[in-house]
Amino acid sequence: MSHPDFISPDLIRQRFSKAMSDMYREEVPLYGALMELVEQTNHHVLENHPQIARQLNSTGEIQRLDLERHGAIRVGTAAELATLARLFAVMGMQPVGYYDLTPAGVPVHSTAFRAVHEAALQVSPFRVFTSLLRLELIEDLELRAFAESTLAQRSIFTPAALALIERAETDGGLSEKDAQNFVEQALETFRWHHSATVTAEQYQQLSAQHRLIADVVAFKGPHINHLTPRTLDIDIVQAQMPAHGITPKAVIEGPPRRQCPILLRQTSFKALDEPIAFTDQTDTRGSHSARFGEIEQRGAALTPKGRALYDRLLNAARDELKDFPNEANAARYNALMAQHFGEFPDTYEGMRRQELAYFRYFVTEKGLAVGDLKTASLDELVNDGHLQVEPLVYEDFLPVSAAGIFQSNLGDAAQTHYGVHSNQQAFEKALGQSTIDELGLYAETQRRSIAECYAALNLSPLRT
Ligand code: OOG
Ligand code: NI
Prior knowledge:
The chain has 20 helices and 11 strands. By secondary structure, it is α+β, with helices and mostly antiparallel strands.
């Protein structure tokens, strides 16, 4: 039973997200510079585009914009992933979506922990892209055994964090004092460590197999490797990054620039080399690069039909490019993307009519003023100005984009070809639960908003 003095999981998540951001800002000064640039850009966009300001005001997103960020971590074992799921559950975060990165040569599969209800997302949309290393992809059996035994020896959670997770599970929540403690203790799991758990030579062996394997196996815990703020105009930020001492990757991942943004556009800058002490060294003369910076712009969530169209157009542009997008072909890639995406309707009404995106409906003043509507279809209510429509923001990630982000951070030399297939079942077994289908969540939010409108208009939702 929920105790009246318990702190809501949404507030714990909001506090945790802030604590994580403060820690990262202190550890990675470039993150602070990026945050400032994003804040300035968002301010500029809101001032100059009243339409965008109006839209964010109607959905309430304006209030979460400054809080909004996602992080990413990588873990090494099923037990670590399963306990992380329990830790995130204390903060109201569920595993949403399954992403297989092996087709892009990255030996992981992933999910995103996030809040699932629109009201909870409004309090804090904090998400963590969480990857599990696929140790079975290490071909050298001796090295694989070494990686397994090294991971088996570490504990990535503090004893106090584990005790508080158990308390939250047993009692159904945490008191104010426990919640404060929980945030502090949970943060420890994501902290950077300047000392590795392996020798310099062992690090080299792991890294030679794949840099990502070294990043996961050679350290005490799954350090947060980036924290990404949400910008309202990613092209402005991308263009201004060099002037702020930040070099972005060659192309922006995701859909091209549009009047009506869809899904997710992302860009990142490369990880810095950071000093590391290996176990056979007394000083930090070694180095490792893992932590990088990223920004993103979020647009409308697409229906299965819209997503299929997105995937088809993206694949067509990439097939025609015949290579991974890079510095040399960036201009051609952008031109191909713009050309192929000409086929994707670029008005919200066009996307709504073709059922390409999900929307939220709101009763207008005019709608509230008319007392005696007997029946009306959704389209009639919209056409008559009784309802207003806003796109539902995409809360998730994109596998092709995520692969591009991983790659830009690992260096192009790290492209490996794995002959394996995605294995959602194995991932869910490790996680200890199923991942939630993100499309179902958007459909539910849309359905709830329509039901609320019909209730407010005293209409029975017979014809939608
Ligand atoms: C995660 C890369 C993917 C995104 O935003 O798509 C990602 C990682 O490098 O661990 O963060
Ligand atoms: Ni990211």
